[in-house]
Amino acid sequence: MTILVIEDDIKTGDYLKKGLLESGYNVDLARNGVDGLHMAREQSYDLLILDVMLPGKDGWQVMEEIRRSCDLPVIFLTARDQVDDRIRGLQLGADDYLIKPFSFTELVLRIRTLLRRGVVRESETFQLADLKLDPMRRKVTRNGVNIILTNKEFMLLHLLVKRQGEALSRTVIASQVWDMNFDSDTNVVDVAIKRLRAKIDAPFERKLIHTVRSIGYMFSEQP
């Protein structure tokens, strides 16, 4: 497993690289957002650890640009500790958000959990209408067209497809996909659904993701 760390603080960056190497990971380190984004695009990584306050491009910008092209799992590791910052990170497509100062043991546990989630062990292929989802290969197609999803988008679609025909509440979705208690003041689930619809439904005539008023969302051929 190879991890990319984008961290401009010299001591923190060196500490992360040394600790992750000792934990058995291959590690590349970028000191600014521009170099880090270039490395993330040009090389293959299993996970990205990303700071927010970076020179060149900040972490928000890096996150946005990465999500336009790939599904690389991302953990924000930052001193930005406001709830709004955490929500923004998740809305941009991050898989986790850890506040500095941090426990290195906790970081490693979160990395292991996230990487395990990326290895979906189900062999069953799901199909509804012209959409096919292959959990083992992490592949999604509609009408034969390959659809690229982020890690969270794939987890969200996988949940919806497995429980197709069920109206899933935002609370259930948040707990299953983000391991978080749903707060009615946040719109993380709604934003994620909107992004998933843009990829899964918008380019196609038949819509499969439906809003169930006062409850949440349903994956079904029927509205």
UniProtKB/TrEMBL annotation:
It comes from the Bacteria. Residues 123-221 form the OmpR/PhoB-type domain. One of its GO terms (cellular component) is cytosol. GO terms for biological process: regulation of DNA-templated transcription. Residues 123-221 bind DNA. GO terms for molecular function: phosphorelay response regulator activity; transcription cis-regulatory region binding. SUPFAM superfamilies: CheY-like. The modification 4-aspartylphosphate is found at D51. NCBIfam families: cztR_silR_copR (TIGR01387). This is Heavy metal response regulator transcription factor. It comes from Allopusillimonas soli. The lineage of its organism: Bacteria, Pseudomonadati, Pseudomonadota, Betaproteobacteria, Burkholderiales.
